[in-house]
Each structure stands twice: as C-alpha cells, then as structure tokens.
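pls read this stuff:
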Amino acid sequence: MTIDEYITLIDDASVYDVASKTPLELASNLSARLGNRIFMKREDLQPVFSFKIRGAYNKIAKLSQDALDAGVICSSAGNHAQGVALAAQRKNVRAVIVMPVTTPTIKINAVRSFGGEVLLHGDTYDDADARARELEQEQGLTFIHPFDDPAVIAGQGTIGRELINQLEEDVQAVFVPIGGGGLIAGIAAYVKGKRPDIRIIGVEPEDSAAMQKSLAAGKLITLDHVGIFADGVAVRRVGDETFRICQQLVDEIVTVDTDQICAAIRDIFEDTRSIVEPAGALAVAGVKKYIAANSIENQAFVVINGGANVNFDRLRHIAERAAIGEQREMLLGVEIPEKPGSFRIFCEALGRRSITEFNYRYSDSRKAHIFVGVELRHGADEHAELIENLTRLGFPLVDLSDNEMAKLHVRHMVGGTAKIENERLFRFEFPERPGALLDFLKAIGTDWNISLFHYRNHGSDYGRILAGIQVATEESEELEAHLADLGYTYREESDNPAYAMFLA
C-alpha cells in the first residue's frame, strides 16, 4: 500500500463510535525546564486509558457480518486486549482474549469488565499468541493483530489526523513510542503525507529496541530477549508492514533506559496529575534525551502519551528510580574511618544537601561503609562536583548511581559484610506469578549452598533475585552449565563494587 492509500484509509477510519478525540496540551512545567515547547497528545485519556482502542475498533468495524457472527480473538498482555474487548462489546461480538499467566490483575479484570472471555496461557506473550492462533483455527475466529494490520495501523493513524488539525504552530518533530510499530506507522503515514517537514522520531527502551536494530540492519531482526519494565512495548519482533512504513518515513529512533522512563513518568505527573504506564512515558523520555543531546532551544515538539494502565504496586519502584533518572539523586558507596566524629565530618562534606537515604553498618575496627543517597539540585554538574569534593577530602567512594544491582537490591540489604568461602553472586529474572519463587528455588536445586538471597516484588511481570551461591572452583563449569539449562535470564555480579563494599 502507498502512503496516499494509507491516508485514505485513515480518513475513512471508524474509531469515534468508541474512541475520543484527545486533547493536545502544552506541558508548561516540562517546557519551562527544557527551554522548548512540549505538547502532549493525551491518549491516556481514552476510555481504555490507551490509544489501542483506535486500531482495535477500526479493524473490527471493517469485518464482514459473517466474521462478526463468528467472533474475534487476540493475544495480548494488556492494552490491546482491553481495546479488542471494548470494541467487541460495542459491536455485540464475542471476543476471546488470550493473555499470559503473568498479566497484571488490573488488566485481566479490565478485559473481563468489557465482556471479554479471558484465557490465561503461558508465561510470555509468545506462549499466549501461539495458543490464540490455535483457537483461531479451531473455532473459526478472526484474529485481531495488535499492530501488523493495515486496518489497525489506520486506526492508530487517526492520531496523526487529529494532530494535523490541532497544531497551531510550527512543530519540529513528533515523538512516538514504539512496540510493534503500529502507532508510529499510522502517525507517520498521515503526518508525513500532509506535513513532510515534520520529523517523526520513534522512542524505544534500550532493552527492547527491535525497530532500531531492524532499521539499522535493513531487515527484520528478532531479539533474543526483551526487557519487561515497559511491558506495553516489550516486542521481540516488529511487524512486516510496520517495518516497511518506518523504513520510508521514520527519521530517527531514540532509546532510553529505565531510569529515564521513570523520570518521564514523574514529569507527566507534575504537568497533568496523571500517572502513565512506562510505555506511555517513552515519548517524553525520548524528547528530553533528544533535546539534551542536540542542545536545542526554543523549538516545539509533540509527544504521544500512549497509555495509563499501570499497576499501583509498581509506583514504589518507579518513584525510587525517577530521581536518579532525572539526575536529582545520586547514590554513593563511601568508606569512612571507624572513629568518633566520622559521621559529622562526612555530613559536613555533603553540605546543605538533603540526604534521601543513609545506610550504615560497622565493617571493622578501622573503617565503615555507608550507602548514601544525596538529593541534587543542579543535575550532572553538581554530581561531578560532589564526587570531586569527597575525593579531595580523602573519602574513598564508588559512584553507584548507574549500578543496577545496587539500585535493585543492595540499597535494601545493607547490614554488614560476611566472609563466605567460594561465594559467587548472580542476579536472576523469572516470570512473576503465584508459586514462581518456589519454582525458582526448586530449579536451582540442592547441589550448592545458597549463601545470600534477596527477592523483592516490584509489581512487574518479572521477579528479580540476587543470590550468592557457594561453589568450589572445580565445580564452576558444572554450575554454569546448570544455570544455562534453567532458562532464566541471569548475569554474574561477583565483581560488582557494591558487592565488595557492602556484602562480601
């Protein structure tokens, strides 16, 4: 299909029986901080709190009566499922929604509230998708793809049509989150077709950048593994059709990390008092990174706020990481002399800065180790200045602000070191569901002693564990082979400086 044909499809799209024309709002606080005008397209205000209702409804509205009578099916871990369920309810159509067992309860309940028949199957989206494809054939249902379908792409493209009508000043670029690519393909088709001067910039998580890698390679790339913090865009392979369109029309891809996404969630909250999901904040994280990297001032940008289906339990994790992502907090591991007055001298070195966290444990008669969080008012410059000042005053330190193990685990574990023979440290991820922790422990087995263990539920789809395992040198290869066979994502952290300072 040509871009002109897509524009026609978008102009003819049936979405407003159920979807809303969402506002384009100036983010005053964010604009002032960035020195540019940032306009938010508020797709988090849709009836299902996500743009996904547009594509789902348009696809179902275009089906024949025979297909409608037979019913529809989809596989999804969240927003697409809700869109299909609500669209089917409005059309009085049977909808079967296959979701991974790991799907958050809030999304399962939302689908059921719209009349969807929920079937939980497998730990991953791929498992759910395979089962949905089987049921499609067995029951004669029509599969509603979440992104790789012209009707779905056209439905999402109505956002681009609304933008063209809402823009009242020259905009340099539109930032769009990317999962499978349906949203950016639809927006790009319409905006580039009408205003080719406006840049289309996609945003992906660094650990789920399937579109960026595919565009760079000039062919579709399937990722071996994707991060699941921004679960709404955790796609191993983008669509054939969405990739084709993005090759033609997308100007650039920006990738962002978890801390930057968390900071963007807070930015949106400060301007709108709404809490978006991680995938919904990608565009804001992307525009911030883009402006900083290119030293841009006094220009106008649009960001797509994609959705607001976030588990309440995840907010504590988001809040912890937001300050670091915004460079409003730094984490340090500091060694101080174990003698009276050391605390006071160290705190004087920090000056009048606010302390966000202070963990201390006696190490030995000569020194103590402190895990400290410090609030920053002036970002990266103040970060460097404080490290320089502490180093000049003779405090040995390790900057832990970018240390994933320290942020996920060590800050909650500081309690003194232990001398454990033959200990190796590993960080694991496993699908989060009832009984998953016990399953993990059974899989690790009883051949080796677990000498350290920390698990914390972050309200996400995957559990995260830090484990110390005692293993003799001659058994190292056997342990590594066993861990590889388990199928869990893991990495060794035995050389992590936070481990050496606080745990080993």
About this structure: The radius of gyration is 25 Å. Residues 150-166 form the longest helix (17 residues). The domain at 327-402 is CATH 3.30.70.260 (Alpha-Beta Plaits).
